[in-house]
Amino acid sequence: MTGADAAPIRGNQHRALSILTIGYFVGFAGVVVYGPVATEFEDVLGLSGVLLGLLVAAPQLTGSLLRIPFSAWADSAGAKKPFAILLGLSALGMGGLLTILITTYPDGLSMVHYPLIFVFGALSGCGIAAFSVGITDITYWYRANRRGTMLALFAGLGTTSPGLFTIVSPIALGAVGLTGTYAAWFVFLLVGTVVFVMFAVDSPYFQYRKRGLEESEAKAKAADAGQELFPSGDAMQSIRTAATIPRSWMLTAMFFVSFGGYLALTTWYPSYWHNLHGLDIQTAGIVTALTFTLLSALFRAAGGAVSDRFGGEVTTISSFVVVVVSTLALVFTHDLYVALVATVTLGAGLGVASAAIYQLLPRYVPDAVGGASGLVGGLGGFGGFVVPPILGLFVDLQGVSGYATGFVVYLVVGLLALAIAVSLYRDQPAPTTPSVPAPADD
Questions:
Q1: pLDDT for 165-198, tens place per residue?
Q2: Among residues 28, 33, 145, which one has the least CA distance to residue 83?
Q3: Is 17 inside any structural domain?
Q4: What pTM does this model have?
Q5: Its GO CC terms (predicted)?
Q6: In terms of pLDDT, which residue wins out, 295 or 427?
């Protein structure tokens, strides 16, 4: 045995969770790269409801679809490298957007620049895809009895950044202007990327593999270090394996509603509060953050513990009942206070459901966690890109009242997700015993 083989692993599960959460916090802020200041772009460019919906959803295009290949890559090479690349791409997109603003804003900015603004917004959203990479890594770091709680902490705390940026961006817009706001954001991304690269560590199995150990020996030593689950094949094999399991697609459909809904409404709500209820831009951002974005993230952080206690199936059923009732209220009300209460409950339902779905994932797809994480997070999160233009279409067709009636979209998909959750409850798999015993967590 060489000295490298005998050396202890770098870091521990708590360090991994901390730096992954920080990195995700940095990257996930890209969700709202346009949302909180959408009115500024809407006024300068003269955007229709559909074009506005496409613009605020641009970060979700890459942030969702890149989850599939990058999480599977993490399943074959470890999480640090793909995670760092995603953060770097996000910084590159923000740098491109900043360059456009420096050279054209305000007098030279026009619809001619819309395609570039869309592309750089999409590139800025690459950091969102780090979600599935982090989910894969944490799944390998933690044992089953704590995994749901730790996954929810990672996802819940990491997703607080859009809420904070939804508050800060309109304030920064008033203080330093649009260009200054994005310049500060660019620096934030660069610093966050450097911090992640300096402190991130791969899970034990990948550390031993990178030291040259054969697969069987690396698994044995990683098991001694506390790792319970292991990748079963290369990146593409992980995706193919997950895609052959029907439950992967059921989880994906539910995540399309829960997390996709969170992404879509985080970017759409500022315009909803501003145009339907008459709140100014700064107030609309603060209300969005406090009643939905931040609150939903906190509910998501608690959702893992709830799922571990009561079971993911029961938790998803309860959560989607809350989603259906909340959206039904939002469709028919123009009253500000009713809308505030319905938004809070909607955010709670979406947040807890998102946590419960990922608590179920390792149990439903134990042989392809990375591939399943990519499918669920990527195609599921794609709801954040698909839905805002549809909401914009309601506005184009019905005017201001379309901001309310557009919620019928979530009423319908919420009912579909509820039906899937009930189906999973009726046909849930029996508990499995890990094939490799593991010592207690650190």
A1: 888 888 888 889 889 999 999 999 999 999 999 9
A2: 28
A3: yes
A4: 0.79
A5: membrane
A6: 295
What is the pLDDT confidence band of residue 435, given thresholds at 50, 70 and 90? very low
pLDDT in tens, 368-384: 776 777 788 778 888 88
Q: Which tens digits make up the pLDDT trace of 85-113?
A: 999 999 999 999 999 999 998 888 889 99
Any domain includes 26: yes
Q: Report the alpha-carbon distance of residue 114 to residue 257 in Å, rounded.
A: 28
- Our measurement of the distance from residue 194's CA atom to the centroid of its chain's CA atoms, rounded to an integer in Å, reads 21
Three-state secondary structure call for residue 440: coil
CATH number, position 253? 1.20.1250.20
Task: Say which DSSP state 441 is in.
Answer: P
Distances (CA, A) of 331 to 317, 327, 335: 21, 6, 11
Q: Answer yes or no: are the C-beta atoms of 150 and 304 closer than 8 Å.
A: yes
- The model's confidence at residue 153, banded by pLDDT at 50, 70 and 90, is confident
- pLDDT for position 439: 33
**Could you give the C-alpha distances from 37 to 54, 77, 100, 112, 171, in angstroms and in order?**
14, 38, 16, 19, 10
Q: Is 210 domain-assigned?
A: no
What's the DSSP call for residue 69?
A: H
CB 149 within 8 A of CB 18: no
Report the pLDDT averaged over residues 227-246: 78
Q: How far is CA 222 from the centre of its chain?
A: 28
Range of the domain at 53: 8-200+232-426
DSSP assignment of 338-398 = HHHHHHHHHHHHHHHHHHHHHHHHHHHSTT-HHHHHHHHHHHHHTHHHHHHHHHHHHHHHH
Radius of gyration for the alpha carbons in the chain, expressed in angstroms and rounded: 21
In tens, the pLDDT along 335-368 reads 999 999 999 999 999 999 998 998 888 788 877 7
Single-letter amino acid, residue 325: V
Task: Tell me the C-alpha distance between 31 and 286, whole Å.
Answer: 16
**Using an 8 Å Cβ cutoff, are 405 and 424 in contact?**
no
Alpha carbon 97 to its chain centroid, in Å, reads 22
Two tokens, residue 346? 């909607």
Total structural domains in the chain? 1
Which helix (DSSP H) or strand (DSSP E) does residue 206 occupy? helix 204-210
Nearest to 374, CA basis, from 75, 84, 148, 80: 75
Sorted by sequence, the CB contacts under 8 Å of residue 3 that are 6+ apart come out as none
